[in-house]
């Protein structure tokens, strides 16, 4: 992490005040209010939202998704053709790779997420693997490039939003071309009429407003691939950001003060609740601290909603009068434990630092 003001590289806030540009982003995009954690499936209006450029206009009756490049049988699929294919519905927790960015110091400049950039929905679509099988990938195809209809400029480069996956990652059973969410057509802001859905991966991978899939014989090095890498400096090659790191969040207990959101609870028996997830496998443990992380106790875990969805947790707490710092952390089946402190990185990505909630029991 840069040690002082003079060491801050480009793309890092010069002061800790939110910039006008960040405020513009925050007004267009929104997180899920953490009280929304009470729902197994997030009402779609509360689900987090990040739009890189503009919401493109879309006419489902005229929309075509093409599959081209290193394939033997190029396809041009209408929405009617996609809907006529075998359908699956998956409950999936999706999180923005920048979730938690605003809590880093110094703050990387971008959408200033705290910890609310998450949501869980029931997505319906058709498996991508079967579409690719019909198209017939050539033997030299190594990746698939997914192109959305959203167009703009980022980093001085005019572009369509594009991300790629290796053939192995793209043909996993759970990867789908989604056209419904929670039993309804996708709303415009969530990718209407069709989007890619890659469960377990951070949300930037699930390209919205999907227009084209290209099979390519060389790894794709587009702007949005380079932007999502963990690096310590702008010229650091870094490593790709892929799957969601383990995270637990709690429903803020008690009631808040309007401006600072400081919480007040009644002294005595309290039940703390929340959700936990990981893109690397099911969460197997959630721990809660009521003393700022000095001591930890296990929470009770609820049944998972699915392999790619969060699970609930609860913890009985006897709140004594005074101020308390509540902390929660998750461990997934790989043994990865959510950190209480997060190493800094240049773009503020994959920051799964443990949530802290200050409450006063009265």
Describe the structure.
With 362 residues, this protein is mainly beta. It has two domains: 5-240, Oxidoreductase, molybdopterin-binding domain (Sulfite Oxidase, Chain A, domain 2), CATH 3.90.420.10; 247-361, Sandwich (Immunoglobulin-like). Helices cover 9% and strands 36% of the residues. The chain is built from five helices and 22 strands. The strands form five sheets. A six-stranded mixed beta sheet has the order 14-15-22-21-17-18, with no helix packed on it. The longest helix is centred in the N-terminal third of the chain and has 9 residues, at 20-28.
List the helices and strands and how they pair.
Layout: H1 20-28, E1 64-69, E2 75-78, H2 79-84, E3 88-95, E4 118-127, H3 128-135, E5 143-154, E6 157-166, H4 167-170, E7 176-181, E8 184-185, E9 195-197, E10 210-216, H5 223-227, E11 229-230, E12 239-240, E13 247-250, E14 255-256, E15 263-265, E16 268-277, E17 283-289, E18 297-298, E19 300-301, E20 311-319, E21 322-332, E22 355-361
Parallel strand pairs: 1-10, 15-22
Antiparallel strand pairs: 1-2, 3-4, 4-7, 5-6, 5-10, 7-8, 7-9, 11-12, 13-16, 14-15, 16-20, 17-18, 17-21, 19-20, 21-22
């Amino acid at each position: 992490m840069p040690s002082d003001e003079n060491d801050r590289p480009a793309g890092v806030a010069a002061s800790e005040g939110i910039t006008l540009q960040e405020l513009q982003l925050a007004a267009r995009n929104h997180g899920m209010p953490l009280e929304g954690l009470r729902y197994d499936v997030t009402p779609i209006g509360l689900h987090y939202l990040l739009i890189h450029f503009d919401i493109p206009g879309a006419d489902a009756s005229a929309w075509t998704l093409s599959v081209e490049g290193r394939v033997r049988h190029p396809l041009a699929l209408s929405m009617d053709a996609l809907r006529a294919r075998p359908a699956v519905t998956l409950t999936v927790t999706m999180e923005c790779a920048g979730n938690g960015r605003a809590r880093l110091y110094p703050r990387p400049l971008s959408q200033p997420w705290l910890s609310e950039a998450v949501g869980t929905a029931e997505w319906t679509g058709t498996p991508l693997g079967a579409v690719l099988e019909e198209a017939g990938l050539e033997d030299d195809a190594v990746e698939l490039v997914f192109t959305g209809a959203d167009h703009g400029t980022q980093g001085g480069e005019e572009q369509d939003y594009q991300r790629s996956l290796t053939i192995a990652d793209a043909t996993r059973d759970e990867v789908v071309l989604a056209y419904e969410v929670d039993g309804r057509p996708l709303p415009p802001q969530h990718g209407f009429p069709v989007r890619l859905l890659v469960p377990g991966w951070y949300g930037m991978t699930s390209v919205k407003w999907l227009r084209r899939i290209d099979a390519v014989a060389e790894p794709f090095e587009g702007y949005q691939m380079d932007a999502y890498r963990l690096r310590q400096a702008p010229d650091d090659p870094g490593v790709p950001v892929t799957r969601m790191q383990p995270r637990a969040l709690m429903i803020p207990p008690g009631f808040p003060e309007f401006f600072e959101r400081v919480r007040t609870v009644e002294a005595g028996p309290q039940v703390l609740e929340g959700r936990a997830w990981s893109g690397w496998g099911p969460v197997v443990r959630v721990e809660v601290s009521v003393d700022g992380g000095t001591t930890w106790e296990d929470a009770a875990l609820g049944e998972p909603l699915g392999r790619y969805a969060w699970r609930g947790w609860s913890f009985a707490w006897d709140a004594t009068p005074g101020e308390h710092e509540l902390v929660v952390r998750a461990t997934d089946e790989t043994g990865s434990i959510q950190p209480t402190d997060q190493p800094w990185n240049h773009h503020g990505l994959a920051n799964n630092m443990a949530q802290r909630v200050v409450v006063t029991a009265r």
